[in-house]
Amino acid sequence: MADEKKHxxxxxxxxxxVLYGLxxxxxxxxxxxxxxxxxxxxxxENWPGFYAIFGFVACVLLVLAAKYILRPxxxxxxxxxxx
Amino acid sequence: xxxxxPPAFIFIFGALLIPLLPGRIKSVYMLMLPVLSFFYLxxxxxxxxxxxxxxxxxxxxxxxxxxxxxxxxxxxLISLIGIIYTMNLKSDLEKVSSLVYAGxxxxxxxxxxxxxxxxxxEMLTVSALSLIWARRTKASxxxxxxxxxxxxxxxxxxxxxxxxxxxxxxxxxxxxxGLSSPATYLIFMGMGINAAWPxxxxxxxxxxxxxxxxxxxxxxxxxxKTAVYALARTFPGTEMLIWIGAAMTAFPIFFAVIENDxxxxxxxxxxxxxxxxxxxxxxxxxxxxxxxxxxxxxHILYKSLLFMSxxxxxxxxxxIKATDLGGLYKSMPWTALFCIIGAAxxxxxxxxxxxxxxxxxxxxxxxxxxxIVWLALLFAxxxxxHHSGIKIPFFAFFSHDAGxxxxxxxANMLIAMGIAAFLCIFIGVYPQFLYxxxxxxxxFVPYTLPHVSGQMQxxxxxxxxxxxxxxxxxxPAEIRAINLDSDLIYRKGGRLFYILAxxxxxxxxxxxxxxxxxxxxxTITRFAQNGPAHLANLxxxxxxxxxxxxxxxxxxxxxxxxxFSTGTMGLAIMAVFVSxxxxxxxxxxx
Lengths: 83, 590
Fold this sequence. Notes:
Order of helices and strands of chain A: HHE
Strand content of chain A: under 5%
Radius of gyration of chain B: 35 Å
Number of domains of chain A: 1
Distance between the termini of chain A: 42 Å
Largest sheet of chain A: none
Largest sheet of chain B: 2 strands, antiparallel
Helix content of chain B: over 70%
Radius of gyration of chain A: 21 Å
Shape of chain A: flat
Largest interface: A-B, 47 and 50 residues
Structural class of chain B: mainly alpha
Oligomer: heterodimer
Number of strands of chain A: 1
Number of helices of chain A: 2
């Protein structure tokens, strides 16, 4: 596949660019938050970065729970039900 | 022209002609059906109804209101998209079934009485079955059977409830039911099985990934959403639904994270999305019911879009497991783009349809000050982005290159995906289009600054979590394995039942054989053979004791037994017996 056309993510620089874009947007979102006038239903919505922290923590907990608790309990061979 | 032609009839009877038509005419004809039906529907006077008297009951096979219209619009739309998508697939069985299936769903949403409702409800199950079986694999056959068993059970529960309810009410009209008597609980449960409630959800995650490429697109749209419609019609404001829904949004995402089959990941996220709708029905306010209806509409579009993109991947590569895929953006860039749009919509990114619909349900929960439910829904929103939003496109189209150099999806599939993708964005940018057809007047503004900023933070930091976990090697690697779910109870449980039944009944059989055939029969036979000789011996012994000595007694006894076995008794002995017998009768008769 040496003569195959180079695709966008074959170049590691482009992956770097996507990551920088992600990190940049995170900083931007946090920087803009103080200028947003909030209309909260719940008190915790007023905490700075509540949604950011919630999203991050929720996903980390989700993955850890799925990987270390659920998977050992439910993982079986693909032919588990065949016999 | 006929004034009132219910869409269900156009779809179902129209479908029956499909096998008779040749090639291109067939495709044109199939595209015409939903368009024609839609034309009839929009030109119908509002609040139309069709009533027939049947055995003293008022059958209303067709009744229109805003809630049923909204579901009918999206069913027409997705049928049209589905027909375009499956145009290049050859199976007539599939084409007929998918239209009968869509027609049955339309029948359910327009049914004005419980009888018609139940008939269409069951037709939905039967026609769905052939979309699973048409894959013609061993796995799809087995999954189809399990699908049938679960739905037959659910149908019977529903039927029992309906019969009891009609008996209570003395009317078959379909309207608000609400939980009160045992009958209403049975109806609630019967509908819940079709809505894939926790523990009875496995028919969905079991069978949809085994369905045909086009079948899964249709299946993902109709069965659960028809149950959503039914519950919104009959059980709005039932508090139990809030908790059922919250559980549905949360638990499937854990399974989705570790699942390898990408269409099964989509099936789990389907349950998660229906959970939002359940919460909306449970809250039951105008905002919440609007949210449920809007979310059903938006969900059908982006979920079928995701199933279409995965179907295109199967169509070109024959693979669907994350372990087999990767790097497909190189050969299927358009499919990848449409998949990403679907993924962004299900994740509720601003400017996509999921954002304008899901936020209504979350706001309805917040309005009701339901903090726990709201937090659960927020957790589920972050989670769904994690597995449907990132995992599906990432493992199929990016990740490590699995080396597939295939053609882009066929043109008709791209057109179907393109229409769905366009609508996902159109509704996101111009939500008034969707809001104008909701059941209640809408007083809801999705695009406020705090709302957009909060949602973007939630999603982007979820993406950060994914990126960091993946880079750190903590993200669970895709493994060739399956994950147990509650269908274990009937898949292995069925086998356990079989073994138990085998041991119990075959054991009983063996005991019976030992006792009756070998034991008792032998005893009776031996008795029949030797009994008379024993009896005679018993009678004669006292006489011989008096008249004969030891040696002669032995000889007479041996002779007696021999004579009995050959049937040649001495006449004298017979005479003795006869006289004894007569004497005995004589004595007893006094």
